[in-house]
Amino acid sequence: MTALTAEEITLVNLALMRIGSSTSIATSTEGTNEYRIAEIVYTDARNHVLADIEWPFATKRASLGAASGTPPTNWAYQYIQPSDCLKMRRVVPASASTRRDEPIPFKLNSLVTQTAVITNEVSAAAEYTAVVTLTSLFSPTFKNALSYYLGAELALGLRAKPEIAKGALDGYNTIRQGVMEPGYLEGLEDANVTRFDSAATVTAVSIFNMALVKIGRMSF
After folding, report:
1. How buried is 106 (Cβ within 10 angstroms: 0-12 exposed, 13-18 middle, 19+ buried)?
2. Which of 48, 125, 149, 161 is the most buried (most CB within 10 A)?
3. Which is higher by pLDDT, 189 or 94?
4. Distance from CA of residue 49 to its chain's centroid?
5. Is 128:88 a contact under the CB 8 Å cutoff?
6. SS3 for 187-206, per residue?
């Protein structure tokens, strides 16, 4: 396991707040149960929320290179899945505009050391959700969703009452339902997730103020 960064610890503390915990984490050198459990569940929780919704900030498009070997029966081509791919969304023609209303069939095929994308598209590109680890690239809505889902994972690990975990999952599903509404993600720019936007860096103070707003305790 990799030690949590300061920004990741900030998200974990937001998650702990979501489940009513009075304990917070200060540094990655803590030996508390909260930190140990957060270190275990954080990466899987983040990747689950990334894969669950087609977040624009995590969306990438890349041409696919040919994979070695013969594709399975009834398929014409076999390509290498991008190494940073968390979830394949669709295959599109590499040299044409995306037509999402005309999906191109594809399957994933496990090879010895990599995953292959098999399809009948002669020159293919992939649209996929990438693994995004840099917290400065997370959208505000994603951070909210992750904090609730992570809260549910922490509640179970800390042996809190089951209804506390359920409440956190309800919060996550409420955000998910809103994001999945038709038109919510339309018109939002697909981001190149390799870029770094220093202006998007989140501080503990900004997250705390956001929490106060949500419970009606912020004065203006």
Report:
1. buried
2. 149
3. 94
4. 4
5. yes
6. CCCCCCCCCCCHHHCCCHHH
Mean pLDDT of 74-99: 88
pLDDT of residue 102: 74
Instruction: For 9-67, write each residue's pLDDT tens digit.
Output: 999 999 999 999 989 999 888 889 999 999 999 999 999 999 999 999 999 999 999 99
Q: Which residues pair with 125 in a beta bridge?
A: 63, 92
For residues 164-184, give the mean pLDDT: 89
Question: Cα separation of 64 and 126, whole Å?
Answer: 7
Region class of 196: left (phi > 0), else alpha (psi between -120 and 50), else beta: beta
The pLDDT value given to residue 181: 76
| Alpha-carbon gap, residue 165 to 171, rounded angstroms | 10
Q: Is the separation of the CB atoms in 132 and 57 below 8 Å?
A: yes
What's the CA gap between 63 and 69, in Å, rounded? 19
Place of tokens 């503990």: 204
Structure tokens given for 164: 């506390």
Reduced 3-state DSSP string for 153-176? HHHHHCCCCHHHHHHHHHHHHHHH
Does the pTM exceed 0.90? no
Q: Return the residue matching tokens 């023609």.
A: 93
69 Cβ contact list (under 8 Å, min separation 6):
78, 111, 116
